[in-house]
Amino acid sequence: MDKLGEKLWWSGPTHGVIKPLSEHHTLERKIQLTEDATLHCVWTDHIIFMKPLPLYLCSHAFWEYLLDTSNDKINPEEREKLKTMSLGFLKSYAMLIQRRSDFNMACRLHLLDSFDGLDFETFVRFIKAFDDLPDSAVSLRWRFAELNLDSLNFYSAIKLHKWHRNRFESRYGAFFERFFPVILFCFAMMSVILSAMQVIVGGRQIWDTDNKGLRITLRAFEWFGTEAIGWSCGFGILFVIWWIGIGIAEAVKQQKTKKGLKQKLAPDKYGQA
Q1: How far is it, in rounded angstroms, from Cα 96 to Cα 89?
Q2: 145 — pLDDT class (breaks 50, 70, 90)
Q3: CA–CA dist 197, 163 (Å, integer)
Q4: Per-residue CA distances from 166 to 26, 36, 155, 219 (Å)
Q5: Distance in angstroms (rounded) separating the CA atoms of residues 171 and 180
Q6: For residue range 65-114, what is the model confidence (pLDDT) as tens digits?
Q7: Are 32 and 160 in contact (CB under 8 A)?
Q8: Which of 21, 117, 182, 232 has the fewest CB atoms within 10 Å, i.e. the most exposed one?
Q9: Distance between CA 58 and CA 51 in Å, rounded?
Q10: Element (H, E) at 253
């Protein structure tokens, strides 16, 4: 994620808001556990990945060790990176668990299994301190909240020169399944055009018949075939225009997001200078 840096705005909103667990349930998203911290709050289709809350992040000893500036075992740059990443991760749980129903869901989903005998009131007293952390206190990744895995995979090919950031499909069928609608549309359109061309060519071969009824029928077939080709090409052109329009709208949206992000990051850079 760090390699993508500010380009993470390609894959997630800049408002930094993560939906509570109950809202993900309302959206019919399956919450999938993962031990890969880079996949925490990354979603695709009807799946969102969640990393269980580690016990050490809630340990006083961990924070005492991390924030001790006299500890020369960690260089200042690494200390700041670990601190902002840890604070961002804890802030994500402050947004994920806001109500008792969210807490009960987290327990059922084994997101809080590291804590024995934990109750809602105790958890809220601890986690609410991280809810209002400013963007300057968390790492760049956590300023973008939920990230879309498909966008991450796409832009990883551009930015990192990798085919994908992460794939969770265990079979090639599941991977190629997402391309079937477009392939089917193109195949159907080409089939209609080729069939119509065959009808027109076949009719032209017997056009010199003296049978008036047959000639009327052939003329109707030719008209129908021409219309089929015209409508198919028209739908194809509309599909291309629609696809280009979506691309332009997405590009405009990303430019606005990028501009807002630069304005948002400018005070942080000015303060660090």
Answers
A1: 11
A2: confident
A3: 40
A4: 26, 11, 12, 56
A5: 15
A6: 888 888 888 888 888 989 999 999 999 999 999 999 999 999 999 999 99
A7: no
A8: 117
A9: 15
A10: helix 212-272
21 vs 169, residue with greater confidence: 21
Of the pLDDT bands very low, low, confident and very high (cuts 50, 70, 90), residue 266 is low
CA angle 246, 14, 33 (to 5 degrees): 95
- The DSSP bridge pattern shows strands 147-148 and 42-44 to be parallel
Residue identified by tokens 């993470």 is 8
CB contact at 8 A, 103 and 123: yes
SS3 for 14?
coil
Average pLDDT over residues 155-165: 54
Q: Which single residue is written with the structure tokens 């027109």?
A: 200
**Domain boundaries defined on the chain:** 12-148, 176-267
Residue 30: its pLDDT value, please? 92
Count of all residues that appear for the chain in the document: 273
DSSP state of 206: T
Rounded Cα distance between 90 and 131, Å, is: 8
Mean pLDDT of the chain: 80
Burial of 231 (0-12, 13-18, 19+ CB in 10 A): middle
Residue that the structure tokens 């691309």 belong to: 247
Maximum CA extent, the chain: 104
